[in-house]
TrEMBL record:
One of its GO terms (biological process) is peptidoglycan catabolic process. InterPro entries: MurNAc-LAA_cat, N-acetylmuramoyl_amidase_3. Transmembrane segments: none annotated. The keyword ATP-binding does not apply. CDD domains: MurNAc-LAA. Residues 64-174 form the MurNAc-LAA domain. Its EC number is 3.5.1.28. GO terms for molecular function: N-acetylmuramoyl-L-alanine amidase activity. It is an enzyme of class 3 (hydrolase). This is N-acetylmuramoyl-L-alanine amidase LytC. The lineage of its organism: Bacteria, Bacillati, Bacillota, Clostridia, Eubacteriales. Residues 1-24 are annotated as: Disordered. The keyword Hydrolase applies. Keywords: Hydrolase.
Amino acid sequence: MPRGVINYGHGPKNDGTYDPGAVGPDGYQEAAETCIIGTKIAQKLQNNGWDILAIQDGDLKDITDQANSFKPDAFLSIHANSAAPEAHGIETYALAPGGVGEKIAREIQKELVLATGLTDRGVKFANYWVLGKTIGYPAVLTEIAFISNPVEEALMHKDSWNETVAEAICKGFSRALGVAYGETKKDGVGKVLDVAVLLYTKEDYWSGADVAVKNGDCAIFIRPDDHSVPKEAMSAQKLIVVGGPTTGHPNEILLSGKTKYDTAQAVGKYLG
């Protein structure tokens, strides 16, 4: 079984503070986007037979310490780029030219550009902490788009775009390592899930992620703009709804309230 580490860039720190990463012109935080993309990647790779360690941590040493203890076949860090508002496109980093690290970076970069149509800024090399301190296995870091660019930040608000990005990364990552990969949508075509979490909007993601962890890192779905319920979520044996109205699922747990604070309170009570 192949083993991989997926690092969602930025997040909570040991001192109790929170590193949001870059913040877009509309206020969207990089850490929120990397968590959404990273969770999708981890679920898709697990569905394809990978043993995955997922890490979101604002302390770089903690990330590499956990990764090195896990001894993966490869490491992938997900980020969103930031610069001037007009900067745009995708770039992927490896530590140095040559070897498997560069191969993974090139395959991921190729798939992302093909799938999204965004500008190809190429494969680059840098001694970033997560690339230089991961020992004994290849490591790459991909900047999926510019959160500082209003157009590309707007793309990040679309679940369909996030799904496309995650699928492209999984294809490139797997191909570079010689691992067969079958395309998956959400948590697998035709697979009936034991448990799924359904969020009303992206703003419910942090609460929903904790609920998913309590249920064995189960699949997370977000209602589209028309607030319909994805069929994969409705087919799950148990559906936990975070925010918004009931779905009518026969085995539903509804964690919702009139305001986002009421919803957070319901989630907190559920988590104990």
